[in-house]
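Sequence in, structure out.
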Amino acid sequence: MKNSKAMVWQRQQILWQKLLANQTVTIGEMAKELEVSHLTLRRDLEYFEKKGLIERFHGGARILPHALARDVSLGSGIDIQQNKRIIASRAAQMVEDGDTIFINSSTTAFFLFETLVHKKITIITNNANAIRCADSGKAEIVFTGGIISSIKHSMVGDIAVQMLKNIRANKCFLGVSGISTKGDICTAIFQETMINSMMIQQTHQQRIILADHTKIGLQHNFTIGSINQITHIITDNNISEDQRKIFSGQNIELITVP
């Protein structure tokens, strides 16, 4: 039986996140992890190669430098960029003047800056790309400092962690790489694990996860928290009934946007 488009999409999403995190992958290890044949893995890598994202070598592949900073759509048939923008727009409605909020370095959460810079709020972020928005509105943007990661221009390391330990926010907005069926909130990038975990810990009111439906049900290597720490999940209305069951019995408000 041929794999469904959804299964192919999820497998390629995991493979792509692994490439982002490790720069290289081997066919043998990934075939074992994803429980597919070596031929299937080669086809997935060929797909990435045709998009100009990787170069292949015998037994594996490495990501190309220019692809690290791109927000790549892997051909799910859905306008991923538009989905992220709509999710972020809905999240922005939850912010009020006077709020102090955390925003992490995810591409989905980055779209929040477009709206929030015009509110009288304080934004603490480890997203170095937000420097573009620093002078365009009323919001005060505070950067965590730290080492700039070449993968997403995120600020990571001990300096960023120590900065967050000294701040209490009333709301945080986190984009994530996956929410597992067991309720683990995951990232694909090890260096960002502690940053995201600290933002959750240092938020005393609403802790909001932004994740399109393709992220729900995915497990990644690095866990930043659990859904029992989260108050809201904002996703798109393509979420399935099986994906909704992950949040059943939890004190979480699930918000879907068209």
